Amino acid sequence: MNAASRKNPADAKLGFFGRIALYIRQIFGELKKVQRPSRSELWQMFLTVILFVAVVMVFVGLLDAAFSQLSLWIFG
């Protein structure tokens, strides 16, 4: 079975602009399926990201301070 025989025959009859319109309709159809978070879920995710970023900043800051102190001891 080749690729041409697997295509939907109705799609083959569509012209260039018809395929673009079909694509846009499919996009909106998929967007209707998207489940958006509630306000409380969004706030919880926001706080989780902020906390994670703060923890990573502290960790990188401590590593930076340790390596700078180590370079001062080595190179004086």
From TrEMBL:
The keyword Protein transport applies. GO terms for biological process: intracellular protein transmembrane transport; protein secretion; protein targeting; protein transport by the Sec complex. Keywords: Cell membrane, Membrane, Protein transport, Translocation, Transmembrane, Transmembrane helix, Transport. The chain crosses the membrane at residues 42-63. InterPro entries: SecE_bac, SecE_sf, Translocase_SecE/Sec61-g. Component of the Sec protein translocase complex. Heterotrimer consisting of SecY, SecE and SecG subunits. The heterotrimers can form oligomers, although 1 heterotrimer is thought to be able to translocate proteins. Interacts with the ribosome. Interacts with SecDF, and other proteins may be involved. Interacts with SecA. Essential subunit of the Sec protein translocation channel SecYEG. Clamps together the 2 halves of SecY. May contact the channel plug during translocation. This is Protein translocase subunit SecE. It comes from Ancrocorticia populi. The lineage of its organism: Bacteria, Bacillati, Actinomycetota, Actinomycetes, Actinomycetales.
